[in-house]
Design a protein that fits this description.
This protein is an all-alpha fold. It is elongated. GO terms for molecular function: DNA binding. One of its GO terms (biological process) is negative regulation of DNA-templated transcription.
Length: about 190
């Protein structure tokens, strides 16, 4: 089956941004990797910045939908947080290049940062609601849910990125066990 041009551009952009970084990547590089004319990319995206933001938005939506599709109402808040940690780790393992782009490049230009934060906020609001649920039922400490959601996302994302950029073995089960302990049990014995 022939891939659509947008899919080809999307994958090529992920590859090129991951390899070269946002600043060094060019639309010519992306067009060559996708095996399309540069004009085809500009037909779909006005600029490299717009293409980058599209990638981030699509990736964050994929992560959010993947997590939300597995959350079940009868799960306890603890089980939901465990599921989120596991899904984030699996997502970053499966979409390594996207993980690198997301966490290495999205803190660039101020406009990009603002757009990225909006997209990330959509995902973190899912975590925040679960933290609030756990606080309300007494299973979690009374913490600021927004801080907890960003800490949970950040912990999984940065730990994943550290392994992926270090080219170490990405042991999802080991990483999950460590993050679960830290997130739900704390570091102190």
């Amino acid at each position: 089956m022939r891939k659509s041009k947008t899919s080809l551009i999307f994958q090529a952009a992920i590859d090129v941004f991951s390899e070269k970084g946002f600043d060094k990547a060019t639309m010519d590089d992306i067009a060559a990797r996708a095996n399309v004319a540069k004009g085809t990319i500009y037909y779909h995206f006005k600029s490299k910045e717009e293409l980058f933001l599209f990638l981030v938005e699509e990736g964050m939506e994929l992560l959010r939908e993947g997590v939300e599709s597995k959350l079940i109402d009868d799960m306890t808040p603890r089980e939901k947080i465990e599921l989120i940690l596991r899904e984030q780790i699996a997502f970053f393992g499966q979409y390594r290049d996207f993980c690198v782009i997301l966490l290495r490049e999205s803190w660039g230009a101020e406009d990009r940062q603002l757009e990225f934060r909006k997209m990330l906020r959509s995902y973190m609001s899912v975590i925040e609601k679960i933290v609030q649920e756990g606080i309300a039922d007494g299973s979690f400490h009374d913490v600021t849910a927004e801080n907890a959601s960003s800490a949970l996302f950040g912990m999984g994302a940065i730990a994943s990125l550290h392994i992926l950029l270090g080219k170490g073995e990405y042991n999802e089960e080991g990483l999950f066990a460590d993050l679960k302990q830290l997130a739900l049990g704390g570091l102190l014995k």
